[in-house]
Design a protein that fits this description.
The first copy, chain A, contains nine helices and 18 strands. With about 375 residues, chain A is an alpha/beta fold.
Chain lengths: ~375, ~375
């Protein structure tokens, strides 16, 4: 097959290095520990790191065995989707034995899932034997931005082109794109599982690209296979902001899918920059959505306080069904969120608040999606 | 952001290793050469290999510079999509500076594209500023296999749910799945570009999973994140073969998309095992498709020659518009294809034959798709 030439290369390496052991990595052990293995007879130092070590965790050193395979086993891990990388003599690599990776900006990390029961987090992030929704990468026209743009659309398994479904707009953060929630956020797995268990109502999930100067994720538009970095996502030169162009997305979705075309059928939520977008969208289009979710949101209140006061008064006078703010205790945006909550409290505007452990990480955003999806359209 | 912890790890490595240079790799140079770079101050030997070295190419040794960055530059490369890997002290790795990868069975390889003009192969495999079709991962019910199964569907940019479009069924090889043609085969880029330039008519492309014992690609069904290998794709225990269950796919597509529901609107083509499936499908359903494309096909004629003769007589009596056989000079299935052509010649059955350089590789299948798509529905 196509990999013949690589197999041939592998056999050259075998001749040079002697009998090459077959390496399986990672191995999820029955006791909830996880073993990493790496073949590197000539390496001086090999370690593994990732979110299984905690936010500020230190690398787990691996030990070289006689057959040239380095190995390390974790403590018992809580059910979760984890990401990790190997460090071989100071250079970061993906695990050659694990083809499951996620991209975050320009970095690939391997992933694995620990699940021990049918109601733990690992289960909700896994592909289970349940009806599956359709995941589509759809191009739409944005008149406001003057661009053809790409979005990801999840249609629930029950979608048949006849029955109408409500829509959750799910927005990514700085450095992300229309693939982030599907890949890093496990959105289609979470929605499939929540819907199958009756914990969320069947809904359409729309994951647009929130960078007004990009048409699509890196590699999926005509800028080619560039190396994405933070600067690639700035808004300089954009014809409009994400918030100003947002109704292009809603109009396209209402025109092309069987949606509930009213406020009670629309929710918007996002993480970090996307939480900021949600905050802005809630003020710009106060009677368009009934459910808002600010996740670890970049929700700085604007300087023009008079205009802001008017927007917020109009928004809450319209009685949205949910204004949800979620953030982790260690999130670097906590201060900003605390200030917004203080403002809402002073004005007696009703909102729900959810605080958990951890910081500005995907582990939390998957939790927030799982919670938010169960609160809406009911 | 979510990669903060990895950036933090990176800075630890910097302190240990001194000033760490920023590495860009690969660099497509103006003269058509390509430079690979890799930071590995402690490595003893670093090389790069991939299909840019030819099918039986030897690794290109990289040279260590004073700053710890290993580098190598290729000769001028022909316009093409290439894949490669690094070999660091005998271990195969992906390039840490390149987040663009393709998976082939269980192996990730980095990719890059060389293009010098708007009519070369690299151009056809690139995302250009043209109208883009929709790429969807769709679940369907297969009554014959008793499974919920996943397929990839490309809808042309002009698809609006009203106008009817013809359908090309595009089948993968052994070890592949419903993602292979979209990822390794660049099917959506090729179709977008051919249609935009008027070289192919707008059409729907359906890329099903041809492994009757798998519901979907690795990681996308309830078997979890297993390490795929050749054995995972055997047909033992399957309720039916791919060919026997194939009309489940056609019926689902006709029921759920705006298709031309007759023979003149249906083509089927596949590579290797998928070429064998095409060969079988052409005999089982002789008046269902008007266009057949056998690419590097595993097209062994069955032992029951009397039954086979009858099937082939019926097939060619029905006057299909195209029976296309394509294979590379060095393909290990050449003998099988030569025997089939000899049979067709003896029977005076009309077919078209295309032979080019190279073997059983994706480079050829992308070429065959580009050629076949221009021959059908005209």
């Amino acid at each position: 097959m196509a990999i013949c030439c690589f197999l041939a290369m592998g056999s050259v390496a075998q001749q040079q290095l002697g009998q090459r052991p077959r390496v399986k990595s990672p191995v999820i052990n029955g006791d909830g520990t996880v073993t990493f293995n790496f073949y590197g007879p000539q390496a001086k130092r090999v370690s593994v790191n990732g979110d299984f070590r905690g936010t500020r965790g230190r690398r787990l050193e691996m030990t070289k065995q006689e057959n040239g395979v380095w190995t390390a086993t974790t403590d018992t891990l809580a059910p979760e989707l984890y990401s990790y990388s190997f460090f071989v003599d100071g250079q970061r690599f993906t695990d050659p034995a694990n083809s499951y990776v996620n991209r975050d900006i320009s970095t690939l990390s391997n992933i694995f899932i620990v699940s021990r029961s049918a109601d733990d987090r690992g289960h909700f992030y896994s592909v289970n034997d349940v009806p599956h929704g359709t995941l589509s990468y759809v191009w739409y026209d944005s008149p406001t931005l003057g661009q053809q743009r790409r979005m990801t659309v999840y249609l629930p398994a029950a979608y048949d082109g006849k029955k109408r479904f409500p829509v959750m707009y799910l927005l990514h953060g700085h450095g992300g794109d229309e693939t982030s929630w599907g890949d890093l956020g496990r959105a289609s797995q979470i929605m499939d599982n929540l819907i199958a268990e009756g914990k969320a109502v069947p809904m359409i999930v729309v994951m647009p690209n929130g960078n007004p100067t990009c048409n699509a994720a890196p590699g999926w538009w005509h800028e080619g296979m560039y190396t994405p970095d933070g600067n690639a996502f700035n808004q300089r030169g954009a014809k409009a902001t994400m918030e100003e162009s947002f109704m292009d997305i809603v109009n396209f979705v209402d025109d092309n899918y069987c949606t509930v075309r009213k406020r009670s059928g629309r929710a918007v939520t996002g993480l970090s920059m996307g939480g900021g977008h949600t905050f802005g969208i809630s003020r710009l289009y106060p009677e368009t959505f009934d459910y808002y979710g600010l996740q670890s949101a970049a929700c700085r209140m604007p300087r023009d306080r008079e205009k802001f006061d008017g927007q917020m008064a109009r928004l809450f006078a319209s009685n949205p069904k949910l204004y949800w703010i979620a953030i982790g205790k260690d999130d670097f945006l906590m201060q900003m969120n605390t200030e917004l909550r203080k403002y809402l409290d002073e004005k007696h505007y009703p909102y729900e608040y959810y605080e958990n452990d951890g910081g500005h990480i995907w582990r939390n955003w998957r939790i927030y999606l799982t919670l938010f999806a169960q609160k809406i359209f009911k």
